[in-house]
Amino acid sequence: MLYPVVWKNNSVLLIDQTRLPNEYAVVEIHRSEDMAEAIRTMIVRGAPAIGVAAAYGMYLGAREIETSDRTEFLQQLEKVAQLLRSTRPTAVNLFWAIGRMMQTAYETIGTVAEIQQTLLETAQTINTDDIQTCQAIGNHGLAALPKTPEKLIILTHCNAGALATAGYGTALGVVRSAWREGRLTRVFADETRPRLQGAKLTAWECVQEGIPVTVITDNMAAHCMKQGLIDAVVVGADRIAANGDTANKIGTYSLAIVAQKHHIPFFVAAPLSTIDFTLIDGSQIPIEERHPAEIYQIGDTILTPSGVEFYNPAFDVTPAELITAIITEKGVFAPDELVKLHTLSQQIFNHY
Ligand SMILES: CSC[C@H]1O[C@H](OP(=O)(O)O)[C@H](O)[C@@H]1O
To answer: Which of 11, 167, 171, 331 lies at 20 to 30 Å from 146 by C-alpha?
Structure first.
């Protein structure tokens, strides 16, 4: 199994996803500021993965606080939370995980040392829980996929794999489960400009797992669907509103439009921790804008002339009416059924 975030020897080990697929490098993180930078620069990325990373970042920050006074400790911990919240705005998992860590600190009655220990245990629980959640998503996804005698070809976008979670993946979790059950022919992976998570990360994960994978450029997806090459589209999510509107990597929205045009089921695979029930629809989901260099530069090559402007939104929002179903660890739901999960979500994520 592939784990992008690992607690080991009193530090956090991150697979450096900016160096894949050509180099498998691990970065050792000891301090909260370094964890914030790792999230900001996408050494670690993917909604659930940055939630897990932020949880450990909260513990790293907690152990840096040198006071035995509980009130002072909590005030300092809130500053760590603010630092981590400032890293990336769209994936709600980041904010949920930080909120859970703060809630744990406030609820722990004891010495500062006892609060710090409880924070570490909470981060480790968030980590292990997400692996189990992804495996449940994968298994529930099997029931959602088209029931055809032939094996399926699934198109996915960006990377919603083990690298984007604590392990196993969400969209690629469904792919892994389908592969293991003998229901998959191959994956078509959008390269996913500008950060190329599909070409670099999804393709790498599939090769590691022996899953046949075809990489296409983003502008080929519609043609592939029109040719009848694709049986289903399965993507991840960074934030899902209560009505099922879903923020995911830029390019997801256009995929959903073309999938509907060609009557191809379009699935979002995501844990409950990605659903933001405080938003009635996707209109208020914050969309991260990243540096223009992600568009105009690949390696040492500058792609565009000087004197041009750039617009680099990292995400878009797919309206619920374009989504066939949302695959969660609690089952498969039509977008308008998510409200059934609200009470359960509040029980699991209360006050975060
Ligand atoms: C398992 S959801 C992963 C989700 O996060 C990715 O964004 P980024 O690579 O910028 O962190 C992408 O939207 C994926 O679908």
So the answer is: 167
Is ipTM beyond 0.90? yes
Q: How confident is the model at residue 345 (pLDDT cuts 50, 70, 90)?
A: confident
Tokens 């409950």 sit on residue: 272
- Which of 190, 218, 238, 245 is the catalytic position? 238
CA-to-CA distance for 285 and 79, rounded, in angstroms? Answer: 24
Binding residue per annotation — 284?
Answer: no
d(CA 157, CA 134): 17
Specify the residue with its C-alpha closest to ligand 1, atom 4. 46
Distance CA 142, CA 67 (A): 51
The answer to whether the CB of 158 is under 6 A from ligand 1 is yes
Structural domains in the chain, sorted by start: 5-133 (1.20.120.420), 146-350 (3.40.50.10470)
Q: Is the pLDDT of residue 217 over 80?
A: yes
Residue of 2, 41, 42, 45 best suited for mutating to test ligand 1, as the one with most atoms within 8 Å of CB: 45
pLDDT tens digits along 138-191: 999 999 999 988 999 999 999 999 999 999 999 999 999 999 999 999 999 999
168 CA → ligand 1 middle, Å: 14
Q: What is the pLDDT of residue 350?
A: 59
Distance 351 CA to ligand 1 centre (A): 25
DSSP string, 147-214: --SSPEEEEE-S--SGGGSSSS-SHHHHHHHHHHTT-EEEEEEE--TTTTHIIIIIHHHHHHHT--EE
